[in-house]
Amino acid sequence: MSAAVVPPQAPAPNRPVVRELTEVLASMRFAIALLTVICIASAIGTVVKQGEPFVNYVDQFGPFWAEVFGALGLYRVYSTAWFLVILAFLVTSTSLCIARNAPKILVDWRTHKEYIREKALQAFPHKASGMLAMPLEQVREHVINLLALQGWSVKTQQREASAKGEAGFMIAARLGAINKLGYIAAHSAIVLVCLGGLFDGDLIVKTQAWLQDLKPFKGGVETARSRLNENNPAYRAQLFVPEGQRTNTAVIALDQGMLVQPLPFDIELKKFSVDYYSTGMPKRFASDIVIHDPKLKVAKAFTVEVNHPVVYDGVTIFQSSFEDGGSVVRLRPHNLIGTRDEGVRTIEGVVGGEPRQLLGTAADGQTAANVRLEVTGLRVINVEDLSTAQRARDGAAGASGAADGTDGTDVRGVNLTELSKHLGSGAKGPGDKKLVNIGPSVTYKLRDAAGQAREFQNYMAPVQIDGQAMFLWGVRDSPAEAFRYLRAPADEDMSMQGWLRLRQALNDPAARAEAARRFGEGAAPADKPELRQQLTVSAQRSLDLFSGSVQLKPQAGDALPEGALNGGLQALSNFIEQVVPADQREHTSATLIRILNGAMFELWNISREQAGLDKRSPEQESARNFITAAVLSISDSMYYPSPMLLLLDGFEQKQASVFQVTRTPGRNVVYLGCVLLIIGVFSMLYIRERRVWVWLQDDGQGGTRVSMALSSTRQTLDTDREFDRLRDGVLGQQAARADT
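RESULT FIELD:
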């Protein structure tokens, strides 16, 4: 026996094959370029929220870039013309590639190529030949059994002697043939995923709108020309259902407005529930719904949760979000410019309901100047990170800071926004948070006759800030701004009545005069009656300036109208700058503040006496803390842009669920494409197609001459070892070692 291992030789070039390979590579480069563009566009569509109102993008990117991104169609990437054109090119290119190569791949997959000539075996990199001292039939059976045991698919061709060659057997075997199908599977997956996603997008809806000449509406009442068919094959719509109500009318948001998508059944929301963590953060949203199908006599109950949708009659119902469903709130007005709240009745409003006219709601005959109340929101749970609450703005002074020449910034304000930067190595990390539920809040707008509106956010319960309970009343001039909070200290009953009584007593001239008199008597020594009168006059002047009841430079009289923006600590500052020399201002300012605090303490006790409460002593720390915070808060309240406070007195919450209802028949197509993509990629990357040929020929002396070769789609060390095992199994290890 002898065997010879022939060194690899390069096969002769085949020009048609080279040309075909070049065309295939060019087609692959084009498809990869298209895939890259689609991936970039999809990434943009994932990062940038799609289908939002344009004003949201203006707030996020600014007016200029919002227009630029809108012109590029980045707010609806998946339905823009350029994205659809690229998708069409990719699908067409890939489909043509499949149509062109699939027949040849299938033909190659079905055949073992047993017709290959013996001389062609010498052109393969892995080849061997030798002589076996066994009959031809015995060797043939041995080779077939050997290959079959190793999992090869074997086919044998017997050849007769002819001018083209001698008689013998050509044994062709194949392993890993699924590698060929991986190409078809991977390319078909791309086509299926694109078509499935395209079918489930809004292209079907836009096509129907164009064919049926539908007109999207942007508000108000929808018409028959804005309704799609109930049997629409594919859509993705939003459904708003308040508790205790049922509907089958969903809406689809488009560039030009909205279209109505009726459902084949009604959805009734029985109850919307939220579960919370111990910190007050929500952990579970769930909607208990009942589906009323006209085709069935009995309604069916389901529970829809986040990531746990309900599928009914081909329509998938997702829990998208939740909103207020028309909660009833009771707001109690409190007068800031008068001296009492008598006759003021509680105002009832509905969140999202019709605006209410506010006339004659203030005390002392004052009116709300034809102001309309619009209740916009109710939040029963408010979880804030109080560990990073910063005092960055004066509560309401910032709203009118320009009136007194300031920028509205005051360290006494509070802003419930998280600090974005920490200074110093000892600062707490971003993860060290103090999440606290600070209770219910109501949001409303006050709109004047000119249509201008300010938005207010008032909390029902006090919040612990720096160890003191504070009521927070927020205001902002536009939705683009953050709320600026006026904070008022809570009294010993955790009520805001103590602060309110003090604020209203400050508006009463008789109460101010009595407080000044008491302060003069209590602060002056008994043996200096002349000092008593001086302190009384100083206290009266400080209270009058602080209340805004006098002006420093009278224009048409000695007094300003009630509620004019001329009071607080700023009025005292202006007085000192006008009448006190510069070198004495610091000392005078400290003295005047002490007089003001003392007079305000007496005024507070007067308001408590009028309410039938006991007097407080300056020796009590809680009393001193209250009056200090109250003076600062009342100073800020001079610039509160409303003559009244509307505080949340009670509510009846009514929730509403926002469902996303989808009919996506292309989803199964996408799933099939994903399965094919996995199979195709796995087959092409991890499965090697190998073919082996063994030529057997009788040598005329009772032995057998053997020639064999192996080909593989990838030349690896595994291929070398596999060929060595086959060669040793066919020709024998001894012969192989002797001739190597």
